[in-house]
Amino acid sequence: MLSYQHAYHAGNLADVHKHALLAVALARMVEKPKPLTYLETHAGRGLYDLGAPEARRTGEAAAGITRALAEGWLPEGHPLRTALEAVRAAHGPDAYPGSPLVAGALLRPGDRAHLAELHPAEFAALQAVAGFADLRHEDGFAMANALLPPTPRRGLLLIDPSYEVKADYDRLPGWIGRMAGKWNVGVIALWYPILSDARHRPMAQALAAAHPEALRSEVRFPPARPGHGMVGSGMVVLNPPFGLEVEAARLAAIYAGL
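Structure for Ribosomal RNA large subunit methyltransferase J, as requested:
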C-alpha cells in the first residue's frame, strides 16, 4: 500500500492553487441549472485538521492557506473561501477541506458525486465526512473508466494521484486521451506537482500536444524547507469552464510575488 500521507501537507501552497481552481470551475458550472456529476480518482480522507501535529510539524499550512487568508488571496465570495467557511462552520476553525469537501460544499442537491480511494484508513476517514457521495474503495482509474460518460453527462473529473508510482507520469497522457474520447463534453482536470527535477515536463508537454485547447496553469513557490523537492503546482484542464483562465492568471500573479 502506498505510504503518502497528505495530513502533513494539507492546506499548503499547492493545495491553495489546486483547490482555488477546482472551486472556481465548479462554481461556474453550477451557475447553469442543469445537474452535473463530480468524479474524483484519488479522494483521500476528505477533511484535515490543521491543528494536528502532522500539519504543525511541517508548517506548510501556515505558509499556504493561513497566509492566503491573512493576505486576502481569497476575497469575499471566492468559491474556495465559501467552501472553507462552510467546512469550518461544521468541523471547527482548524478544519481544512480536501477536494471532496470543496466539491461537496459547492454541489447542489440534484448533482451527483463519485469518489474513489484505495487506502483503507483514508477511505474509512472519507466515509465519515462524505455521505453526500457514492464512495468507492477501489482504484480510481478503474472507477472513472467504468463510469464515464457519467449520468448526468455534464460534469467534472479530478485526477490527483500521489505520484508515488513514477509510471503515473507516463500513463496519464494516454489514459486521459482515452477518457476524453469517451466523454468529449466532460471537464477533465489533472493536478501534478512541479518538482525540482522537472519530471512532470514530458507529461505536461504530451498533454499540451494532444489537447492544445486545454488550460494549463502552473505556479512556482519556494520549497517548504531546505531540500524539499516540490517547488510548484500544476493543473491541466480539458474543456475548462468559462472564466477559469481569469482565475488561473490571478493566481499566477499572486504566486509570482512570493
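Residues 184 and 239 are 9 Å apart (CA to CA).
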